[in-house]
Specification:
two-stranded antiparallel ribbon; 20 helices; mainly alpha; transmembrane; membrane
Length: 402
């Protein structure tokens, strides 16, 4: 039992119910309750769990003396990173906005593990992390970036808020913050106290709303001019002159649409405050010719359509791909990753496509001093050897490294 504020006789009540008295903050079903969502300490259990997992892998693959008992290749590291390390914070990311400092700390653990930082020795990070987190189709490894992945997971709540009108959690938010845009979102949150979790979720509204299209039913929740219901652009952006001259700019669709009787076409009662000039008539004609093909046939409630999927249903995967989308040439990734080759071989080839293999040239660029030739390397050891022995040693080296 957790009291909120001053509760009299809490001890007697706990004895009667045979339960303990707790206090906020606490952990319930793996989630922190009563703690500030901005606090870095909220994420400490996730980071500690990752560090324990890495310590277990280090114990498995490294002995106390530093000698490797088992070899963990880069391909194996990539598999563990994508399937285990990256999945640990998913539960928290689906509700809380991750602080930037925490995201950088977790990604540093992932980065060091991928490039071999399980021991105490230094390992080069051959390819930049932003390239590693690029999709495979665009020459990356497909590791998820935490901040956009967090925003993609939180977008699910924005989608559900617009559709689940009668759910208890939505009614609580509406009672606390009010609604805006026809009930598709809450009003702007300005209070600095008591609104942390939902305020963090609402930070992703702009990116989320770009991929939303309205499905007209009754038309009572969709604004005629401002919302995207008639194509990829709102009517106010497509016909700015007509929007400026409209009589009612905040009108909803049901206010200007006269539904047909016995299967006829809808009629539209859109009014303007002034007459149009001759050179504007063509725009007016285009405006009214647009509606016959967009007349709603559904008489149910208004809905949403997710433009990034053919079925129109929101999913975090498509939202994440849209958030990280950046210009780039297509890469023949199937020739590397979709072949019957060990993962470490595919990883090596991928690294080579970036020109990041630790060849002599790359080592010299990193500040290492390299010996110019094999002859200069062997000369100190070959003094006193005859010519025949020298040639035999060279042939042996060539055969070994052929």
């Amino acid at each position: 039992m957790v009291p909120v504020g001053e509760v009299g006789n809490i001890t007697l009540l706990a004895d009667f119910l045979d339960c303990r008295v707790g206090a906020l903050p606490l952990t319930y079903l793996g989630m922190p309750l009563g703690a500030s969502y901005k606090a870095v300490s909220v994420w400490d259990p996730i980071i500690e769990k990752m560090e324990r997992m890495l310590a277990g892998w280090k114990k498995l693959y490294l002995s106390k003396g530093g000698w490797k008992k088992l070899y963990l290749s880069k391909g194996g590291r990539l598999t563990l990173l994508k399937n285990m390390l990256s999945s640990l914070p998913t539960y928290f990311l689906s509700l809380f906005t991750i602080p930037v400092s925490v995201a950088h700390r977790i990604e540093k653990l992932q980065r060091n593990f991928l490039w071999g930082g399980m021991g105490d020795d230094f390992k080069h990070h051959l390819v930049g992390w932003h390239k590693v987190c690029t999709p495979k189709e665009k020459r990356g490894l497909g590791v998820r970036r935490l901040i956009p992945f967090n925003k993609a997971l939180l977008g699910k709540w924005l989608w559900r808020f617009g559709l689940e009108e009668h759910k208890l959690w939505r009614r609580v938010l509406v009672a606390k913050y009010g609604v805006d845009l026809g009930g598709w979102r809450t009003s702007h949150i300005r209070s600095p106290y008591g609104c942390g979790v939902w305020k963090g979720i609402m930070l992703g509204w702009h990116d989320y709303f770009q991929h939303i299209e309205f499905v007209v039913g009754l038309g009572s929740r969709i604004r005629f001019w401002q919302d995207k219901w008639c194509g990829n652009m709102a009517l106010m952006d497509r016909f700015p002159i007509l929007y400026t001259c409209s009589s009612h700019r905040e009108v909803t669709i049901d206010s200007v649409m006269l539904r047909p009787v016995a299967g006829g076409l809808c009629e539209w009662n859109v009014t303007f405050v002034c007459d149009f000039n001759d050179w504007e008539i063509e725009v007016v004609v285009e405006f009214f010719q647009l509606f016959p093909s967009k007349s709603p046939t559904n008489e149910g409630p208004d809905g949403l359509r997710w433009k990034l999927r053919k079925d129109g249903v929101f999913d975090s995967r498509s939202f994440y791909c849209a958030l990280i989308d950046r210009p780039g040439r297509q890469f023949p990734w199937k020739d590397i990753w979709a072949v019957k080759a060990p993962p470490q071989v595919s990883f090596f080839i991928w690294t080579a496509t970036w020109g990041r293999i630790l060849t002599c040239d790359n080592l010299m660029r990193r500040g290492y001093k390299m010996i110019n030739s094999l002859r200069s390397l062997l000369t100190p050891y070959l003094i006193g050897l005859g010519c025949g022995a020298y040639l035999q040693l060279l042939v042996l080296l060539i055969l070994l490294f052929h």
